[in-house]
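[step 3/7] inverse_fold.run input=structure_tokens len=522
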């Protein structure tokens, strides 16, 4: 996936304090994606010690307590003798580390570990401080467990992915070190000077009951899509330039008649890109169309709805970052209570909601590209923007690639959270499928990046073909940046490398940086 980037090395000097207060989006991204170091707040260590004392007292109680002296899930009614309780926690972790499939990306695993550490640091789980310290040490050493993408139903949280992390802390299972080399966990921990942990009462359960995987992927997705929707604004405006459309419909007073904040932001970006464009100014003098097609005229409305969807999802993610998800949980007044806070429905819903928005963002982009390639609708551009139409096919098949991706994104937009499948002998009879929603959203973002990249490839060629008419300063800056990697109009050439170069420019923020250097964008 193109959204995955190196997890270590960029900001190793930055330190993120994990404590009683919630992590920010920037904290999660810095640790997960760029290898920032973590420290545990002293107050958190003290709170963990206090709540651990509660668990230790319950361990000595003759009355069974779930997760402390009983089995789990459908086996919760079975009381476990004192001599078997360490084995109980170890067996829980080993049996639940049952993932399969494609290896989960390093940045996702680091986010998963960080967010579980954040919950441990609240002191509401009852684990010993040394368990949290082991997680922090593994993160700082760049050690991540190897786990497959299948294994979580999103309830009770991300069980299998989290179990692989707990197994690593026990010194078992397979991991990758800071260089990405696969090896046994025991070897990686020893090489990094990290002590493995023998889990005690409740600790195994506390390490696997959480929504951390789906939350981590949600935070990363929102971060990536906030940039991508601005790129979509830029691409749409450039398509309008290439098509000699009008910018009159993006006037602030027209947009204010429908006061959605996302719409206003996207319209402002498009006005900024089109400001000072001779192509648009010349076109306005001879603009014979009553109005542009929807894919051009309604871009702020569609892009803006994507923005507003992201901000709703960010509110949900922010609340989850403030949460202490575990079952049972040690309350502030020292009670140990069962609960259902591990259910992933709040996250599953917004992950699915975003996937719908992403599919539509890509869909309208593809429509603009198709319009630029069709001589019946492109207002004077050569068919498929080809150098010698007929001999050359130009960007004809680039649009096919877009269309194939958009079709895939529509399938990925089918909600995962409307599904549920019973597990654990019907004890867990309704699950969220939030992890699955997050996994498909990552694939959707990858596809949308490629679709926007192809629109930028098309729009930049269309603008070049309008010469001697010139684009505005923002489009000129973007085209210049693209031309450093991809040649302009001419005879057909091997097209896949051009598309790959544009995708790289999109993912690396090079296009966004070029545009932002010429105008203020949001």
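[step 3/7] decode complete -> sequence:
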């Amino acid at each position: 996936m193109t959204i995955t980037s190196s997890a270590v090395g960029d900001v190793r000097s930055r330190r993120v304090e994990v404590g009683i207060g919630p992590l920010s989006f920037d904290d999660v991204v810095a640790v997960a994606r760029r290898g920032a170091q973590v420290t545990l707040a002293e107050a958190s260590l003290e709170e963990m010690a206090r709540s651990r004392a509660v668990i230790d007292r319950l361990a000595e109680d003759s009355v069974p307590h779930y997760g402390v002296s009983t089995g789990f899930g459908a086996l919760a009614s079975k009381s476990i003798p004192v001599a078997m309780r360490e084995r109980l926690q170890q067996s829980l972790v080993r049996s639940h580390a049952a993932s399969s499939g494609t290896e989960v990306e390093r940045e996702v695993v680091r986010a998963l570990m960080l967010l579980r550490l954040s919950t441990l640091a609240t002191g509401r789980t009852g684990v010993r401080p040394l368990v949290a310290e082991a997680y922090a040490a593994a993160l700082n050493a760049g050690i991540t467990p190897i786990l497959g993408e299948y294994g979580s139903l999103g309830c009770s949280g991300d069980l299998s992915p989290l179990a692989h992390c707990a197994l690593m802390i026990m010194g078992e299972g397979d991991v990758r070190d800071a260089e990405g080399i696969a090896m046994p966990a025991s070897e990686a921990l020893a090489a990094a000077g990290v002590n493995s942990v023998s889990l005690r009462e409740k600790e195994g359960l506390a390490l696997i009951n959480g929504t951390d995987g789906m939350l981590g992927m949600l935070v990363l997705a929102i971060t990536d899509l906030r940039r991508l929707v601005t790129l979509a604004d830029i691409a749409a405006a450039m398509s309008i330039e290439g098509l000699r459309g009008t910018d009159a419909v993006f006037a602030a007073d027209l947009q204010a008649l429908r006061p959605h904040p996302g719409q206003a932001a996207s319209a402002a970006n498009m006005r900024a890109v089109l400001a000072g464009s001779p192509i648009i100014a010349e076109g306005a003098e001879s603009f014979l169309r009553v109005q542009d097609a929807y894919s051009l005229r309604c871009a702020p409305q569609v892009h803006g709805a994507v923005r507003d969807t992201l901000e709703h999802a960010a509110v949900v993610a922010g609340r989850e970052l403030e949460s202490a998800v575990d079952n049972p949980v040690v309350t502030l007044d020292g009670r140990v209570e069962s609960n259902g806070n591990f259910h992933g429905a709040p996250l599953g819903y917004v992950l699915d909601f975003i996937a719908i928005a992403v599919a539509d963002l890509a869909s309208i982009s593809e429509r603009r590209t198709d319009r630029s390639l069709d001589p019946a609708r492109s207002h004077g551009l050569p068919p498929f923007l080809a150098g010698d139409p007929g001999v050359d096919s130009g960007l004809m098949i680039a649009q096919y690639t877009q269309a194939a991706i958009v079709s895939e994104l529509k399938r990925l937009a089918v909600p995962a959270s409307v599904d549920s499948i019973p597990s654990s002998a019907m004890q867990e009879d309704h699950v969220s499928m939030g992890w699955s929603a997050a996994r498909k959203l990552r694939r959707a973002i990858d596809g949308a990046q490629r679709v926007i990249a192809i629109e930028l490839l098309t729009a930049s060629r269309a603008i070049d073909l309008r010469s001697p008419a010139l684009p505005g300063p923002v489009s000129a800056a973007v085209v210049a940046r693209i031309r450093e990697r991809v040649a302009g109009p001419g005879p057909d050439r091997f097209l896949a490398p051009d598309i790959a170069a544009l995708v790289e420019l999109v993912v690396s923020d090079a296009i966004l940086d070029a545009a932002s250097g010429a105008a203020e964008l949001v």
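[step 4/7] annotate
Confidence is low (pLDDT under 50) at residues 1-10.
The radius of gyration is 26 Å.
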